[in-house]
Design brief:
Elements: E1 2-4, E2 8-11, E3 14-17, E4 20-21, E5 34-36, E6 43-44, E7 57-58, E8 66-67, E9 80-81, E10 89-90, E11 103-106, E12 112-113, E13 126-129, E14 136-138, E15 173-176, E16 180-182, E17 194-198, E18 205-209, E19 215-218
Parallel strand pairs: 1-5, 4-6, 5-7, 8-10, 9-11, 10-12, 11-13, 12-14, 13-15, 14-16, 15-19
Antiparallel strand pairs: 2-3, 17-18
């Protein structure tokens, strides 16, 4: 249940420094609850912790520059994540379906968040976009196609449409420390617009609402809000 990754390993008489958690390294390791990574780690590979459903705690060391695609996809036991100041990019579906994640910070050096990075993060209520000198580029959330039209508002919508990046998240506390840009302007909703999932009819009906907010604040670097 508790795993500590060593900073060095010995193999055939030689000592090697551990610098990477490789692609699919802990794929579906559903018994692991805590992971301690050494400060020597510089990269976490794609899907490294994919569907580690019971993972509750992990440290991301300083020096890591990116959260790769699907790194923490489906880690539904995580409730909190502290990203190091060295993060420069968060890739596609990195935290998708982390359904118990309640708070996260976006470091000031982070330049972009790709599509679906926080889709289905239905418990995320605190988001801090730290101060930085460059705008943060945001992608979109999971897109809906014509098959969803009977379940979505506005009803009868016949074209594909994209949702904002944090539409699944019932954000209560939001801090924006710099300007935000969007990867695609066409047919995209606000990145911070909360969509409530209504299961009363046994089908996921999305209603747009902004009623979750308790506090929203902006840093001195913010000059434009779309």
């Amino acid at each position: 249940k508790d795993l500590t990754v060593p900073s060095t390993i010995n193999f055939r008489g030689d000592t090697y420094t551990v610098t990477e958690v490789s692609i699919n390294a802990f794929y579906k390791s559903d018994e692991v609850e805590t992971i301690i990574l050494p400060e020597t780690i510089r990269e976490i590979g794609n899907s490294a912790f994919y569907l580690c459903a019971w993972l509750k705690e992990i440290n991301i060391p300083e020096g890591i520059t990116k959260i790769n695609s699907k790194s923490f996809y489906g880690c539904c036991g995580l409730t909190s994540m502290k990203l190091p100041s060295t993060i420069e990019g968060i890739y596609e579906s990195a935290f998708m379906d982390c359904s118990k994640l309640k708070n996260i910070n976006i470091p000031g050096k982070c330049e972009f968040i790709e599509n679906d990075a926080f889709s289905w993060c239905i418990a995320l209520d605190s988001l801090i976009i730290e101060d930085g000198n460059t705008p943060l580029r945001m992608g979109k959330a999971y897109e809906f196609g014509p098959a969803w039209t009977q379940y979505c508002e506005p009803y009868g919508y016949v074209e594909r449409f994209h949702r904002g990046l944090f539409n699944d998240s019932p954000l209560k506390y939001l801090y924006v420390g710099r300007n935000i840009e969007y990867e695609e302007y066409f047919n995209i909703m606000s990145p911070f617009e909360h969509c409530v999932i209504n299961y009363a009819s046994s089908k996921p009906i999305y209603f747009r609402t902004g009623n979750s907010y308790r506090k929203v604040s902006f840093g001195d670097m913010v000059t434009e809000i779309h």
